[in-house]
Amino acid sequence: MTEKLDLSTLSNHLWESANNLRGPVDAADFKTYIFPLLFFKRISDVFDEEIAEALDESDGDQQYALFPENHRFQIPDGCHWDDVRKKKANVGQGLQRAMREIEKANPDTLYGIFGDSQWTNMGGSVA
């Protein structure tokens, strides 16, 4: 039997999970960097789900699947989470570029959503 969670309980679980993940990172930094990353990943996943749904509806028509009308948000070429994950160097620049291009492609809904974090100071890779 599956137990249902009310919104308040779910919110508390998510907040505690975020605190556990954050560890010793300052809460302001967490908000500045982690939330934009989570949102970037989520809209990329939703975009993929919408592609799959459009492909099912159209018997595999790739062009139809990419029509803007099939998506809540537009993700320009080279700006998907998977594109940034493939970067071996300058990951921060890749993140910043992808986020800015997504904001530009969705000016009425996502303008400024990713904030003004300085991603270019980052090295490493994205998991």
How is the topology of this model organized?
Layout: H1 7-22, H2 27-57, H3 62-66, H4 81-85, H5 91-105, H6 107-110
Structure description:
The chain has 127 residues and is mostly helical. The chain is 60% helix and 0% strand. The protein starts with 6 loop residues before the first helix and ends in a 17-residue tail after the last helix. The model is unreliable at 122-127 (pLDDT under 50).
What would the keywords be for this entry?
Ferritin, 127 residues, mainly alpha, 6 helices, disordered C terminus
Brief summary:
With 127 residues, the chain is an all-alpha fold. It is built from six helices and no strands.
Shape: globular
What is the count of β-strands? 0
Rg on CA atoms, Å: 17 Å
- Straight-line N-to-C gap: 33 Å
Please report which band the strand proportion falls in: under 5%, 5-15%, 15-25%, 25-35%, 35-45% or over 45%.
Answer: under 5%
What is the tally of helical segments?
6
Name the CATH homologous superfamily: N6 adenine-specific DNA methyltransferase, N-terminal domain
Structural classification: mainly alpha
Task: Give the integer mean of the pLDDT values.
Answer: 85
CATH class: Mainly Alpha
**What count of domains describes the coordinates?**
1
- Return the CATH architecture: Up-down Bundle
CATH topology: Ferritin
What is the chain-wise order of helices and strands? Answer: HHHHHH
Low-confidence stretches: 122-127
Assign a percent range to the helix content: 55-70%
User: Largest sheet, if any?
Assistant: none
